[in-house]
Design goal:
Radius of gyration: 11 Å
Distance between the termini: 37 Å
Strand content: under 5%
Largest sheet: none
Mean pLDDT: 84
Structural class: mainly alpha
Number of helices: 1
Low-confidence stretches: none
Oligomer: single chain
Order of helices and strands: H
Shape: rod-shaped
Amino acid sequence: MIDEDVLPIGAAAHAAIAERYLIER
């Protein structure tokens, strides 16, 4: 399944977006 490749990328992207959101606030 592609999930094995998508999960790490999605987690990294989500962490980056969340971090940027917190910094902007």
